Amino acid sequence: MSTAGLHLNDAALALAIAGELHSVRPSIVHADPTDARRFGTDAVATARRTPRAVSADHWSALGAANPALPGMALKLARAELRERLAVATVDGGAAVQLAVPPTLPAAALAALLGALRAEGITVGGFHDAASLTVAALAMPRTTLVVQLGQQYVAAARVGVEAGEARTRAVAIRRGSGTASLQQAWLQLASEAMVLRTRFDPLHDAASEQQLFDLLPQAWATAAATGAAIIELPAAGESRQIQLAAEQFAHRAQVVYRDLLAVLQELRPSGIVDIVLDESLLELPGLRGKLAELRGCRLLTVSRGFVARAASLQQSAPDADGSVTLQRGHSLWSAPLEAPLEIPHSAETIAAQIPTHLLWEGRVVSLPQGRRIEVGREVDSAGVQVNEGVAGVSRLHCSLLRDGRGVTLQDHSRYGTWLNDQRVLGRINVLAGDRMRLGEPGIEFGFVAVGEADGPSQG
Fold it and tell me: Rounded to whole angstroms, how far apart are CA atoms 441 and 413?
């Protein structure tokens, strides 16, 4: 019997059978309950023609447990998975293994389990997608795993101890994801076409669908070659525009900032591996933004990797029929595939623990075990900013250097930024990082110049 594995990432819901990828496509489905034949089936081809009869957010609604939506969201998820799994269950195959993203809480999984059982589908196990990724790659150290959904960006920090990979922390930004990118780039292409040809493709459902269908190849081409030509046939004539990778990247900045923010939030001290799906490198400008992360190795895995790994699991329901979420996974003796490392400059890879803070020509030591306060009213060992500087709190932030590195903690009303990403709570700092307090703000730098043996200012 063949085991099926599903990765429940709605931006690229993937099905694998016995270790081989079968299909990957976004979770955009027909949502008209009166059309039983098509309900829950693929609707990418009509997503812009009939938007009110299509759903692209049922998985997000299921994860958020919105009281107004979970009933319909669950019905859509059930119908979609029934259709996806039809090919895998013709022989009455083994239990399905589901790899789940961090956005699906236990209540959503319980509801999903009941819905699938009602379809006669046996669920062998739920698997934390991030820890399964690290285990299947046989990666022996702390790793950040990226996931980009239709309505969210997320990252998980996976630690490895005694040969087991387990997710230790998760950061999520909802309301940001591939749907936001698609809408921003659809608007970009429409504006360019209006300027060049006086034709607005968004004023006609058919031409909007045509443009929507052309965009994925366009942005992948732009990312690979620097520019892409989009040719839209309409009313017997061809309308053509050219978009540069920089234009796509500029419109994507909000989503990219959210992605960098979740990575910065979880980043530990020292060099860390970041794993992401290879398809994300087809997004123009994202590779460059990720390269700004110091002390990181960027690794990519093939499309559907997590689904393939799930399809090789052998979990089964407990004797009482219950199915648990497997949060930890033993490292595989041999990786499912060798991840591809994206080249960085030596400067970017360098990951040193900072020993000093630089500010207006002064050098402030960061001694081991001592908390350094930064703000307008701080103690004598801290960094006191002039009273007249706007956007700086009395106690704005603090820095602590210990055996694990240097931690920055924000305490302010106005915000603290590290490498242009706002700090939410605590974050680890590396030499070469830049810290900014408030808006327009004042900037500090971090350097490693030898061991700090006490507080000093020069």
Answer: 13
User: What is each CA distance from 236 to 281, 392, 436, in whole angstroms?
Assistant: 36, 60, 55
CA distance 36 to 83: 12
Cα–Cα distance for residue pair 227/230, rounded to 1 Å: 10
What is the Cα gyration radius of the chain? 25
Taking residues 179-199, what's their average pLDDT? Answer: 94
Residue 17 — very low, low, confident or very high, per pLDDT cuts 50/70/90? very high
Confidence category of residue 68, pLDDT binned at 50, 70, 90: very low
pTM of the model: 0.79
Neighbours of 335 (CB within 10 A): 15
Which one, of 393, 369, 364, lies nearest residue 380 by Cα?
A: 364
- Give the structural domain span for 403: 356-447
Instruction: Say if residue 108 is in the same domain as residue 43.
Output: yes
Residues whose CB falls within 8 Å of the CB of residue 183, separated by 6 or more in sequence, listed in order = none
pLDDT at 348 over 50: no
Q: What is the CATH number of the domain that holds 205?
A: 3.90.640.10
Q: Are strands 4-7 and 96-100 parallel, antiparallel or unpaired?
A: parallel
Average pLDDT, the chain: 88
CA-based nearest residue to 9, from 89, 74, 77, 86: 77
Whether the upstream peptide bond of residue 440 has omega within 30° of 0, thus cis, is yes
Q: How far is CA 237 from CA 84, 197, 199, 206, 228, in A?
A: 39, 11, 11, 15, 20
> Position 211: which residue type?
L
Same domain (yes/no): 325, 423: no
Domains contained in the chain, number: 3
Q: Under the phi-then-psi rule, with left for phi > 0, alpha for psi from -120 to 50, and beta for the rest, what region is 138?
A: left
What pLDDT is stored for residue 404 in this prediction?
75
Task: Please state, in angstroms and rounded to a whole number, the distance separating the CA atoms of residues 188 and 191.
Answer: 5
Tokens 């002039």 sit on residue: 386
How distant is the alpha carbon of residue 320 from its chain centre?
36
Contact 398, 411 (CB under 8 A): yes
